[in-house]
Design goal:
Helix content: under 10%
Number of helices: 1
Strand order of the largest sheet: 1-24-23-22
Mean pLDDT: 88
CATH superfamily of one domain: YVTN repeat-like/Quinoprotein amine dehydrogenase
Structural class: mainly beta
Oligomer: single chain
Low-confidence stretches: 1-18, 21-34
Largest sheet: 4 strands, antiparallel
CATH class of one domain: Mainly Beta
CATH topology of one domain: Methylamine Dehydrogenase, Chain H
Radius of gyration: 18 Å
Strand content: 35-45%
Shape: globular
Order of helices and strands: HEEEEEEEEEEEEEEEEEEEEEEEE
CATH architecture of one domain: 7 Propeller
């Protein structure tokens, strides 16, 4: 097969943002120009962010969190759609991932210990580390999955202990993971394949997303460039960032048959450096724009 030709500038920029160096942040103002998007996804919130920010997650149009690089990148919380932000107490710095279970239980994935909050992100409790994690998916304050680039872990005791989950064959770069039940879960790799398990990772079933990746790169950064959620065994959604040449966009892929077939939806053109988060019900997609320090939240309208 002909090898894709990737844009070297994109690769260089992606490498440079993988570390934990602090960056200057712009002023916190509401974005004046709404981001252009097409298809069934509509922008419901767009804010420029003052605090250091490279990951963001929203439960709804009001409640959300951000996290940034280095120690100054501790979690910030909003309950008014980003009009005001509160610095969380005892949050780790250098955040790579967030997962909002509900309005009270929130998890954070950091360079240091994993953290959990049971009061809506205002204060955090550190639990056991799990390597340089970048993805997490929790059912509640006790049961969840966590992932590094090439390792998947599970906990049943709120992160006090972790057990390794066997990976699908040939998976070397985990982009997204999601746990639907204590034993049923999903992960997306950088080859454009969604893998599903019903037995806690003892067996996996690959489901290609049907993406044409000729000349296209799915960025494999330390922050999430993809997100996956399933409502039940049949109905699922994958959001993924694709770059190639001068093109950079976010697309969504939807299945109603457990991943056997996928329908693609264009979400929006995107900057080169973004992190993605899907709410647990799959209705809201949060895009953290590293370049402009901007949070964009889109809702699926159909």
């Amino acid at each position: 097969m002909k090898q894709p030709h990737f844009n070297s500038t994109i690769l260089l920029v992606a490498v440079l943002v993988g570390g934990c160096a602090p960056a200057d942040a712009p002023s916190a103002t509401t974005a004046q120009t709404q981001t252009e998007n097409s298809g069934p996804w509509r922008v419901v919130l767009q804010r420029d962010i003052e605090q250091p920010m490279r990951v963001a997650a929203f439960l709804d149009a009001s409640f959300g969190l951000t996290g940034g690089s280095a120690d100054v990148g501790r979690a910030h919380v909003t309950t008014d759609g980003g009009q005001t932000w509160t610095l969380a107490e005892r949050s780790e710095g250098c955040l790579f991932g967030l997962d909002i279970v509900d309005s009270q239980v929130v998890w954070q994935c950091a360079l240091g210990p994993v953290g959990v909050s049971t009061n809506g992100g205002r204060t955090w409790q550190a639990v056991t580390e799990y390597g340089n994690c970048r993805q997490m998916s929790f059912l509640d304050g006790q049961i969840g999955w966590i992932a590094t680039r090439d390792r998947l872990g599970a906990t049943k005791d709120g992160g006090q202990t972790w057990s390794d989950v066997p990976l699908p064959e040939d998976v070397e770069n985990i982009l997204a993971t999601s746990l639907r039940t204590p034993t049923a879960g999903y992960l997306v790799d950088n080859t454009g394949v969604m893998h599903a398990t019903q037995d806690g990772g003892q067996s996996w079933f690959p489901h290609p997303l049907g993406l044409d990746l000729e000349g296209i790169l799915i960025p494999g950064r330390d922050t999430p460039s993809a997100a996956v959620r399933f409502a039940d065994a049949d109905h699922g959604l994958v959001a993924i960032h694709l770059t190639g040449g001068l093109s950079s966009r976010v697309v969504a892929l939807r299945t109603t048959d457990g991943g056997q077939t996928w329908a693609q939806e264009e979400v929006m053109e995107a900057p080169l450096l973004v992190a993605l988060y899907l709410s647990h019900d799959g209705s809201l997609l949060t895009i953290a724009d590293h370049t402009e320090s901007r949070v964009i939240v889109l809702r699926h309208m159909e």
